[in-house]
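Batch manifest, entry 17 of 40.
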Amino acid sequence: MAALRRLDRDQARPYNFALSPVLVTLTDMPITLLGPFEKDPSRWSKLPFVNIHDGTTHTLNPPTLLALPQTFAMVLAEYVRRPEFKSLAPDGRVCKSATAGLLQRYPVTASGFHWIGKETERGWEQAEDISTLLPSLRRYGRHTSAASQVLQERLQRLSLDSLQRETGLSRNTILCARRGERVRPGSLHRLQAASALAITKG
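Output type: structure tokens
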């Protein structure tokens, strides 16, 4: 809304309907297109869209910007090459885009309990309490964990090069985990999987 009001303060109003295509940009230029609402998809490519960052008007066909509207076909084409982050590869390594076969369960280690705020307050549904609009809910934060003594000893026995190759983590992160310093839980999961794989192979 702030960007729209810089272009036209009187025309920019909340809760109006509009179209804004998801773009695959081929340039560093900031592009966010906004156009009039239209139910007929066959007319979308011919509609005039305004780039809210500079106020210029563009069309999708013929294209007047170094950007392509993302289609379902493009999303599906990329989906088959998307790594499965919630599972491990059949050999216990992190999944890659070309991983195939029966995937393994991804190890999960709880690092503690944290309050997670919900999108709405129940009090707002039951009564028009203005206090529910206040930011009383806790939000997500960046959490870290320390490697256990057993994991530290395992990491000490493995070379840095092999750990980097298996996990894709930086040397600094691996060294911090070896010393028992706090690192991101996702990094610890990768190190645990790599060390477990090395034990099974050894």
